Amino acid sequence: MYVSDCISVNDCGHLTVGGADTVKLAKSFGTPLYVFDENEIRKNIRAFIRSMNEFYNGNGMVVYASKAFCCKEMCRICMQENIGIDVVSGGELYTALSVGFPAEKIVFHGNNKTREELVAAVENGVGRIIVDNLTELETLNEIAASQGKTAGIMFRIKPGIDAHTHDFIKTGQIDSKFGFALETGEAMEAVKAALGMPNVKLRGLHCHIGSQIFDIDPFELAAKVMLELYKDIKEQTGVELPELNLGGGFGIKYLESENPKPYGEYMKNVSAVVKSFSHELGIKTPFVLIEPGRSIVGAAGLTLYTVGNVKNIPDIRTYVSIDGGMGDNPRYALYKADYEIVCANKANEERTETVTVAGKCCESGDLIQENTKLQPVNAGDILAVLSTGAYNYSMASNYNRIARPAVVMVRDGEARVVVKRETYEQITANDV
Ligand SMILES: *Cc1c(COP(=O)(O)O)cnc(C)c1O
After folding, report:
1. What's residue 393's pLDDT?
2. DSSP helix/strand/coil, 333
């Protein structure tokens, strides 16, 4: 009935997530509230592991892109499921290490890592640092030398793929701030430089062509482009790179009308290309890494809000104002992201109204959705915005000094807080 798998409607007509009544959750923990179904997260992780085993004979690693949703408990879940973690900052690295995440399975990304971040990565033995540019390569070699270590690295490559998604999240093309260009010879130059450096070990190359991608073709094409580069590297240097990191970006269903390809199909098709094409080119089939973020947590989460007032402007529109907004979910304000919204305490009723759901920030653009279908609602009703598990909590801010919501995880109907609600004391803690 509603877009994500882990939600349902109970006998009281209330929306449930992971077997827990969302209206009760709102009452017990307050709103706004992020809620995750832990079993759904684990199910998604295991589906990727299964296809890695099936299609690559286990010759690969699933790496969760933690920028989608990062907190200690999420890192623990990844650790328990025995997958890797991708971090993009010292803060995410710190979070993963703080729960004892094995550093060898950490992948460190970023187009402008600071010296401190690189030092921390080398010191802690991060398995793969994804080097973005030559300046970083030189700095890293020097840091590793000063610590008497060899840093495992991969290079971020722009394969020149135009994935059909929103411009803001399209990163594989030449005009991108991320990585080395192929066409200009920059990538080959970097590979040769790294091979001549004593304190870095080039494990392979990485590409990530964008996010929320529904088609499989751009992924297949990216894999081919990367493998051709592996062949050129072998010819020009004699070195066969052992690993290939194909990034993340698998699309999820935000609306009923959307139809992303199942991940198994993606894994099947891309693995077939990787195996046959490397054979054709005369290179070894590499160890493959994939970095799903959104597809692991996106549909496993939702956000609960309380309606404060309903403002009907005749012949214009109806605003439904909620107790959160762009502070906890900036994605509509940023790029008009789609969401399905349900009145949690009237989930068995028809969505007959067309409304705009507005946040409480002092910005006219602070909207969660425009012209969306909703049950008739009044002040005090609970709204659930679905599929907010990815890039919501992780993008939250304290704009207007609004406290960030708590995060609750539900498992088999039992709920527990995994991130506490922020307090005003915490918001002012660093003020002097
Ligand atoms: C953001 C990102 C991912 C994850 O993307 P999703 O769309 O969330 O799957 C993976 N790898 C890199 C390098 C990224 O920047």
Report:
1. 98
2. helix
